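Before surveying the methods themselves, let us examine one representative protein, pairing a chain with its fold in token form.
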Amino acid sequence: MDKSKILYAEDDTTIAFLIQDSLETYYEIEHYKNGKSALEAFNNKDFDICLLDIMMPEMNGFELAQNIREKNSEIPIIFISAKALKEDRIKGLKIGADDYLVKPFSIEELMLKIEVFLKRSKKTESSSTKYTVGKYQFDPKNYTLQDAGNIISLTQRESELLLYFIRHKNTVLKRQDILKAIWGDDDYFMGRSLDVFISRLRKVFSDEENITIENLHGIGFRFSEK
């Protein structure tokens, strides 16, 4: 069986060696020391997931992620950075990242997150069911919403969250249940992540009067379609 292929951008050679050495038994991992060379590789090769540091020369991780998202809205992106401020984490998610790990972290935690995203990608690929959401056709397999002549590309996290909402339409959903279903955890940062992704979905459906994502204070959310 072919190994999944990881694009890894990190300028700290010591950290890069440790991570690459730990992961290469299980994955095919290509390491690049700056954002510019990583983007060039991404534009010319196929990868299954991206691990991006933020503070890199020539092109930082935020810029790299933006460029990756412009070309591919589906590939999972995980930031791995020493930048621990809440603002940096939220910025990373708003750019389109799917997760954010703060250094130092354990290799086991990183591998767990990688496996979660790779398995979800394979599971999504095997599903051909499409859903009608307002004027759109939602295709979880390809992470897209489509109406007449218009296609909106979603990230993997956005697609997972929307699918969860659709399957629990017009139902009050507790915040902690959503977090555990999508992220597998319900800590403070994951809660802020959920808010970011809900804001992104609200923006997508901003012109749909019949679709609402209601915030139920102290409880959770309700995805409704009239």
User: Anything to note?
Assistant: The mean pLDDT is 88. The longest strand covers residues 211-216.
